[in-house]
Design a protein that fits this description.
Layout lengths: L2 H5 L1 H11 L7 H14 L5 H15 L9 H11 L12 E4 H9 L15 H22 L14 E3 L2 H11 L7 H11 L4 E2 L4 E3 L2 H12 L3 H5 L5 E5 L5 H8 L5 E3 L6 E3 L10 H25 L1
Antiparallel strand pairs: 1-5, 2-4, 3-4, 6-7
Helix pairs in contact: 2-3, 3-4, 3-5, 7-8, 7-9, 7-12
Length: 301
């Protein structure tokens, strides 16, 4: 399941409820989301919820039999009926000027005694941006997205492992040729920005400096972060965090789709849509709107 779905559970649950199971690979999760959506947003009582969930499954799962799905249904209903059950719905993650100023001002070298900037300097900054993004979104998720983002004041860690680091590299949109551990994290460690601990766990030491930067930027950092006017980047695509850093730094290949407004990397300078499907849908909607305007004009005249 992608990060977009992980942090936008409400939209995902509504989509599944209306259109059916989207992936057989995540059936337990999707059943839980549907059950929670029916419980919290359609207000089904526990006893009625089980009945309605079975009816929903009969309509949307081919060959559905209650006996075969007994455990999955029980688990979904039980989780949906817990007092604290909810659907995470984080609409955006905001970055502020002092945060980007701090990241871009870093002078990253390959050796503590070297005065030359590392060839991996930009990749390092991009990874720090992505780690900061994960810190922000996980804190929002922990509070179910209901509380405003406060100043970054806690010590923060990233728990790795081969799969997690591979996902982190993909999220940061680092070049394929760059090795995330040997090239980037090692360089960050040499510069005192992270501290590798054990079993893939690293401490995000740069957060200490960022906290200090927040206090320098404004005595009341929380007040600054509560103001939309201070936002310089608003991340809404949670599977492509690194591209937002590129966009801020004026990478001409990174832009937003004219159709769906998702961020993407252009293959040609003239590309305006993230995919052919998006272009076709945009053209279809454009023609429909044009016909409506034409008919309205004809009626008015």
């Amino acid at each position: 399941m992608t990060a977009d779905y992980q942090y936008k559970e409400l939209a995902y649950a509504r989509q599944i409820y209306e259109n059916g199971i989207l992936s057989g690979q995540h059936l337990p999760t999707e059943l839980r989301l549907v059950a929670t959506y029916m419980r919290r947003f359609l207000n089904y009582k526990p006893k009625k919820l089980r009945e309605e969930l079975e009816n929903w499954c009969e309509q949307h799962i081919a060959g559905f039999q209650k006996e075969l799905y007994f455990k999955q249904l029980n688990a979904a209903v039980t989780k949906a009926c817990k007092k604290d059950s909810t659907l995470i719905n984080i609409e955006h993650v905001d970055f502020f000027q002092y945060e980007l100023d701090y990241l871009n001002s870093l002078f990253i070298t390959d050796d503590i005694d070297d005065s030359r900037e590392s060839a991996y300097s930009y990749d390092c900054k991009k990874l720090l941006f992505t780690l900061l993004f994960l810190t922000k979104i996980n804190r929002l998720a922990a509070s179910n997205g209901q509380e405003p983002l406060k100043a970054q004041t806690q010590k923060t860690y990233f728990q790795g492992g081969a799969r997690k680091y591979s996902e982190l590299k993909k999220l940061a949109k680092l070049p394929d040729k760059v090795k995330i551990n040997e090239d980037v994290i090692h360089t960050l460690w040499l510069n005192g920005l992270v501290s590798p601990l054990y079993n893939g766990l690293i401490r995000l030491d740069f957060m200490d400096e960022l906290n200090a930067a927040a206090q320098t930027a404004a005595p009341d950092a929380a007040a600054v972060q509560d103001s939309d006017s201070s936002v310089v980047i608003r991340v809404t695509d949670y599977d492509a965090a690194g591209w937002y850093f590129d966009y801020y730094n004026k990478d001409k290949k990174i832009t937003f789709c004219k159709g769906c407004n998702r961020i993407f990397k252009k293959k040609t300078n003239r590309q305006e849509f993230c995919s052919d499907d998006c272009f076709l849908l945009y053209r279809k909607n454009y023609k429909t709107q044009k016909q409506r305007t034409y008919r309205k004009t004809d009626v008015d005249s």
